Amino acid sequence: MVCDIRRYRSCDLRSLGRIYAASIRHLGPQRYTESQVAAWSSFPDEGGRFANWIEDASTIVAVTEQGECIGFGGIEESGHITALFVSPPYQRRGVGSRLLERLLSVAGDSGCRTVSTAASEFSRPLFERFGFRVQEIEQTVFKDVTFQRYLMQSRL
């Protein structure tokens, strides 16, 4: 899949919210309950919290040649990957891998020696392909719904 990776712009926020929700609604039912999918996919509806989550990280965006946002990822200065989401029509076409490669490059350029993330059931395999290993399995609660996620880490 041919796409460009660029830095996030504030005008991207609405598109990233749509990608986030659509990705969860598309893949979520394969591994999550209906209530988990509903709670998780509603995060962009929180406006300010979602915007802060995007803008407090170094967020990158995958775009088509026409400029359509098709995926995004975020990383904190500490080397913690906060986000990695791809629009359903572009999933399993290399966009997530390209985003993750760039996030790892950003971390390395910033002097990080290790990178971490809290992976979902459906992002865990991608992170494992890039050398991440599960350090701990965590139970977390969002909107009164419990989720399991994988705290993962990789050395650069």
Describe the model.
Helix content is 33%, strand content 33%. With 156 residues, the protein is an alpha+beta fold. It has a single domain (4-113), classed as Aminopeptidase, CATH 3.40.630. The radius of gyration is 15 Å and the shape is globular. The mean pLDDT is 96.
CATH-scheme architecture: 3-Layer(aba) Sandwich
Sum up the overall morphology in one term. globular
CATH topology, what is it called?
Aminopeptidase
- Estimated helix fraction: 25-40%
Secondary-structure element order, as H and E?
Answer: EHHHEEEHEHEE
Task: Tell me how many strands there are.
Answer: 7
User: Mean pLDDT, rounded to whole units?
Assistant: 96
Sheet with the most strands: spatial strand order: 1-2-3-4-5-7-6
Give the N-terminus to C-terminus distance in angstroms: 26 Å
Strand content: 25-35%
As a whole number of angstroms, the C-alpha radius of gyration is: 15 Å
Number of helices in the DSSP assignment: 5
Q: Describe the main β-sheet briefly.
A: 7 strands, mixed
Broad CATH class: Alpha Beta
Structure classification: alpha+beta
CATH superfamily: Gcn5-related N-acetyltransferase (GNAT)
Give start-end ranges of low-pLDDT stretches.
Answer: none
- The tally of domains stands at 1
